[in-house]
Amino acid sequence: MASFALLLLLLLAISCLAVDQESSQRPQALGNSTSTSLRLGYYGSSCPNAETIVRQTLMTLLMQDPTAGAALLRLAFHDCDVMGCDASIILDSTPQFQSELESPKNFGIRRVDFIDRIKASLEGSCPRTVSCADIIALAARDSILLAGGPNIPVLTGRKDSTRADLVTANRKLATATSSVEEILQDFASMGINPQEAVSLLGAHTLGVGHCLSVVNRLYPSVDTKMDLMYSMALRVLCPSPKFYLNITAIPNDSTMFRFDNMFFKDAALRRVLFALDAAVESDPRTSIYTSKFAQNQGLFFDTFSRAFVKLTSVVNSEATQVRSNCRAINS
């Protein structure tokens, strides 16, 4: 834990540097829509320290829970895939709509309280200025950086949705058993090409999985795409096909706290948790990229950064608010 804290302190110095301007061009039209107001440094005048506050608050929170970075990264993915990046995912249920968090496909989404705490820090300096949607995107970006990944030039200027969409969440969000075709089509709708799509799956390098998402590969027989010794270890952790009897969290790869290309190296050895990840490694449309990323971490970082900017630039054109409370629309 001491070494993790030291890493965070060292990265704090990095966080004070200006975001790399070489990648500042806006992405092409994507998914739902893109807003011409999205840009680097959107809060330069209205809240000059906004991104510093996000990063410094997050660093403090990660010292309390080093596993939260992976959770915040997944939160951003699931927010942007439903109506665009609009913080609809963290709205509580109301008589008018059900929360997207009630979707089974959002199983395991957590640390929304960290978004609340970052929002509270920002409200203290710049009331009703920084959107919850931007906080989610920035917290994901900084979680990547603080785990040793690239410093991604994420644009800002998103607005917050005034509703959630549980129906779309149930229909659209990917699962551990989604097909390669489904993933490629979903990302293509956001202007993300196959190589970039594979790089985004590399986000699985952080965090853990659960037996819920693995038992289908272990019982009644072991998936042939899984390394035998790896499957034996997983059966110890998930000893029953009834997933609710298994509460073990399983590292996604052998460096679960570090954002690196280990996920792709493990994939080459058939040591990945999810059926989707195994399929991406074996599908000829995508395996060429998993191999390249396993061999070249710099290529993975560059491709992931480009894809993440595209993903987080998909916006909801109907989103109009800057919520003061991220869990509820403004009255």
From TrEMBL:
UniProt signal peptide: 1-18
Active site: residue positions: 78
Subcellular location as annotated: Secreted
GO molecular function, a single term: metal ion binding
Gene Ontology CC: one annotated term: plant-type cell wall
Cofactor binding, per record: Binds 1 heme b (iron(II)-protoporphyrin IX) group per subunit. Binds 2 calcium ions per subunit.
Keyword field contains Disulfide bond: yes
Residues given in the record as Ca(2+) 1 binding sites: 79, 82, 84, 86, 88, 100
Catalysed reactions listed for this entry: 2 a phenolic donor + H2O2 = 2 a phenolic radical donor + 2 H2O
Presence of the UniProt keyword Lipid metabolism in the record: no
Subcellular location, principal: secreted
EC number per UniProt: 1.11.1.7
InterPro entries: Haem_peroxidase, Haem_peroxidase_sf, Peroxidase_pln, Peroxidases_AS, Peroxidases_heam-ligand_BS, Secretory_peroxidase
UniProt keywords, alphabetically: Calcium, Disulfide bond, Heme, Hydrogen peroxide, Iron, Metal-binding, Oxidoreductase, Peroxidase, Secreted, Signal
SUPFAM superfamilies to which the protein is assigned, alphabetical: Heme-dependent peroxidases
All copies of domain Plant heme peroxidase family profile, residue ranges: 37-330
Family to which this protein belongs: Belongs to the peroxidase family. Classical plant (class III) peroxidase subfamily. Belongs to the peroxidase family. Ascorbate peroxidase subfamily.
Function text: Removal of H(2)O(2), oxidation of toxic reductants, biosynthesis and degradation of lignin, suberization, auxin catabolism, response to environmental stresses such as wounding, pathogen attack and oxidative stress.
Name of the protein in its database record: Peroxidase
Originating organism: Selaginella moellendorffii (Spikemoss)
